Amino acid sequence: MVKLQVNNVVKVIEKKTIIDNFSLTVNSNDFVIITGKSGTGKTTLLNVISGLTRRDSGEIYLDDALIGKHMQNIWRNKIGFIFQDNLLLENQTIKKNILIGAKFNKKLSDEEINNLLISVDLKGVSLKQQVSTLSGGEQQRIALLRTMVKRNEIIFADEPTGNLDKVNAISLVKLLKDWSMEDQHAVVMVTHNPEFIQFATKHINLV
Ligand SMILES: Nc1ncnc2c1ncn2[C@@H]1O[C@H](COP(=O)(O)OP(=O)(O)O)[C@@H](O)[C@H]1O
Ligand SMILES: [Mg+2]
């Protein structure tokens, strides 16, 4: 099933064409990886195709609805975003960070949250612990859980492993992939690291 359809999208910034006629079909079980060196427009592309940033021309459909103005509902219900800097609330607890924004998930019990933590290999931590006490790799896994519990249908991830060492980076991408396969979530991830292409159902290299 087609989840996201991007047709001939163009984005110009300060008279420079950053995205030139980009098209992509993302099915609901796709794990799309977009690679490219720094400055090739990965972040711009992700922001445009997720509707965060305005495009200059072209069409983007999410579940057949044209992405444009009035995105709040679509964003809240359908789209998840993982950033390179995880944007966690540093002075808040692990539990609060996982549940943030997940309105309809307030009912998650502590036991369920603990099971989620185990699923991302974070067994020993306490729900009441401040996220700032965790390592970078652990914090990024909390950011992943925060996105997962929202049960969004499509996740956009901008260099989610950018701040992690090699071992943590691979394990994070594997978690994202397993989860997308189990729950049929589509993922569009950009990365400068070609090592992750092995996980992709579709791969695009920007030059
Ligand atoms: N807000 C902006 N103003 C001016 N130039 C920008 C802006 N955003 C991106 N660019 C330019 O667009 C190009 C692509 O940037 P970006 O999408 O961040 O690439 P990447 O994520 O692949 O490193 C770069 O040349 C960058 O300088
Ligand atoms: Mg970038």
UniProtKB/TrEMBL annotation:
InterPro entries for the chain: AAA+_ATPase, ABC_transporter-like_ATP-bd, ABC_transporter-like_CS, P-loop_NTPase
Single GO MF annotation: ATP binding
Highest rank taxon of the organism: Bacteria
SUPFAM superfamilies: P-loop containing nucleoside triphosphate hydrolases
Domain ABC transporter: 4-207
Keywords: ATP-binding, Nucleotide-binding
Claim: ATP-binding is one of the keywords in the record: yes
Family to which this protein belongs: Belongs to the ABC transporter superfamily.
Name this polypeptide is given: ABC transporter domain-containing protein
Organism: Latilactobacillus graminis DSM 20719
